[in-house]
Amino acid sequence: TVRLFSRHLLDNSEQFPDVAEYLLQARSDSVRSFILDSEIVGVYMDATKGKFRMLPFQDLSTRRGSQSVERDRVQVRIYAFDLLYLNGESLLKVPFWKRRKLLQEVFKETLGFAHAQSVGLATFDDELLRATLEQAVTDGAEGLMIKLTGEGYHAPNADVSCRTFGYESGTRSQLWLKLKRDYVVGYADTIDVVPIGAWYGNGRKAQKGFLSPILFAVYDEDEGAFRSISRCMSFTDAMYQ
């Protein structure tokens, strides 16, 4: 049995029955139990050419159940990037590069399953980062995840290696950085918006009385009215105050 959980531990298994099938098809015969860290992405899939185009997240969110019409309308693909548990053993203390190597060994790529593409950097390379980011955005991705793999690093002992490159669950780790197009000066498009509504946030934001997310709108000159376009969140505490 395969169960699918969101990062908030919501069980989405019934919403993506095809994903369970893809996982079982991709695993090797030696895999008896596993926990993957991965992303389910809506794609336009041309099976005859073996090519895929990522669809906007809004398309994926329309998947409401296991009905075949929903599955046919929005096809999905799994992009796996980490292996946390395998055959009864936790891999949380294993360095990332070893976890990723093991993931690639025990799960093969199929039409419905792929390993996240990566580019190795031994030192900071601004030009390569920008080129890789541009390609990722062109392919339909939000941006890049920059992670320390630990490969080539010789820790003085196993405890240091674990704390330095092991998997940290339930937290924003210092071992990785999210790089999106709008984080880079000169890359993002700009638009003037007006706040028209807000909700009280959850967790830390609720405790501090912050309003988050905030609903924004643009002015429709033809209709003479404001039209909502997006909710935004993840601002700094200073902005909320």
From TrEMBL:
A biological process term (GO) from this entry: lagging strand elongation
SUPFAM superfamilies per the UniProt record, alphabetical: DNA ligase/mRNA capping enzyme, catalytic domain, Nucleic acid-binding proteins
PROSITE patterns given in the database record: DNA_LIGASE_A3 (PS50160)
Keywords for this protein: Ligase
Residue ranges of domain ATP-dependent DNA ligase family profile in the record: 69-220
Pfam family for this entry, one: DNA_ligase_A_M
GO molecular function annotations of the record: ATP binding; DNA ligase (ATP) activity
InterPro entries: ATP-dep_DNA_ligase, DNA_ligase_ATP-dep_cent, NA-bd_OB-fold
Keyword Ligase recorded: yes
Family listed: Belongs to the ATP-dependent DNA ligase family.
PANTHER family xrefs: DNA LIGASE 1/3 FAMILY MEMBER, DNA LIGASE 3
Protein name per its UniProtKB record: ATP-dependent DNA ligase family profile domain-containing protein
